[in-house]
Amino acid sequence: MTTLKPLLARNRSWALQKCQHDPDYFEKWVDGQRPHSLWIGCSDSRVPAEVLTGSQPGELFVHRNIANMLDPADDNVMSVLQYALHYLEVERVVLCGHYGCGGVQAALSLPTLPLAQESSALARRIGQLRHTLHHEIAQIADDCCVAASPGASASTGAERSRRMLDALVEANVRAQFARLLESEPVQTVLASGRPLSLHGCVYDLASGHLTTLVEHLSPQEHAP
Hints:
Blueprint: H1 5-21, E1 37-42, H2 49-52, E2 60-65, H3 75-86, E3 92-98, H4 102-109, H5 121-132, H6 134-147, H7 154-182, H8 184-192, E4 197-204, E5 209-216, H9 219-222
Parallel strand pairs: 1-2, 1-3, 3-4
Antiparallel strand pairs: 4-5
Function: Reversible hydration of carbon dioxide.
InterPro entries: Carbonic_anhydrase, Carbonic_anhydrase_CS, Carbonic_anhydrase_sf
EC number: 4.2.1.1
């Protein structure tokens, strides 16, 4: 696909279908947005936030990057977080990773990759992720040594590798969630008493299901 024509054609078809179902569909979004949630997710093309949550335009304020990272030194993600919390006043922040994440896999395998010899933005990003997960990666290396046996089948090894990568994906969600919770924009809102809930989730490509791994609920949500 080297031309934009197929995407433009699909855009026109989509817009026509929306207008046929609801003539005022697009007019609803012209005057502004009031999203209820900020979504911080991975850039992976298989994990589109609006699609997998069944959301309409105006519901989600979305930021996506490789491996759903929240780096306090990254003005991109931090400006999105600040804008969503202080100007849009979203009620919920969802930080979502996914099984089979290429960024997490690259962090695990970085020493053996040509990327490790680069000084590119991608290399720095993956290196930072590997540093964040270094304890978990060391544990995986130890587990691999213990689990390895001469008689193990290829399928057994592949399944073990998949489980270990899944565990690392979940560890990354928890690590990035901790940074989210500790961030200045979030702490400011929590200190103000304004309702805000935070959710760390993982998406399963095989089932299409979201699962909550960790969350911080506002006092209002804890109330009976």
